[in-house]
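Researcher: I'm preparing a figure for a lab meeting and need a structural model of a single chain. I don't have an experimental structure, so a prediction will have to do for now. The sequence is pasted below. Please return the structure as tokens so I can convert it later.
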Amino acid sequence: MSDRNFQYGDRVQLTDAKGKLYSITLTAGAEWHTHKGMLKHDELVGIPEGSIVATNGELKFQAFRPLLADYVLSMPRGATIIYPKDAAMILGVADIKPGVRVLEAGVGSGALSISILRAIGENGFLHSVEIRDDFAKISEKNVSSYFGEKPVNWKLSIGALQEQQLENSFDRVVLDMLAPWECMDVASNALVPGGVFMSYVATTTQLSRIAEAIKDSGNFTEPESSETIVRGWHHEGLAVRPQHRMIGHTGFLVFARRMAPGVAVLQRRRRPSKGSYDLPD
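Model: Understood. Here is the structure written out token by token.
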């Protein structure tokens, strides 16, 4: 039997002819019931990915192991997740790669934690901080379920980021919280020179405040911000058009790099537009 063939304990994604997704975990003797018959888990064991399986009512499904995006979008949630499109941008823009040390605050349901842990590999380290105990429990369960156990290079702490005892040797700091501007001192102290600071915020008000906080700290390069919008396309013969539904705005990413201690950032030359800042009293 190939190691890639389905085995007991595997999570399997079943897709019907309409594209609807279902997820099951193969268990000996178990059955999965639909509106049109049932499927025995035992019948999937030993067959390869990409097979077609059918219920006893002849309802057919394609069977694959779920990709990371499939797992994240279907896993139990406490807080709203960082969507795969934003997680991919965070990993790319922040250059999160094998061996780096990452400090993450605002774990939510653990979606970004999973992506970071996959990217940093066994030689990297992730310290995640979540202020809410209920969210921390959900994220720990989701991360452990994805990897089969809690990763040994992952530390999960409960409480406010400002209250944590942190090392000052992180290569990356990623914040996903309501008021990241309150944590600029913590981020500055935690990051090594040249380290990357990344914040994920949902509103333009938050975007403005975190950008100004980065500038006011004097410890980072000029902040850069962006959003990622993904639009799918429909293609049926010559009928090619954008899909009616799309993943639009989910959040803003704000990026900056840590300056060396005591080194003033090089100010950019720019002329602010009228109304950019409040007029003095």
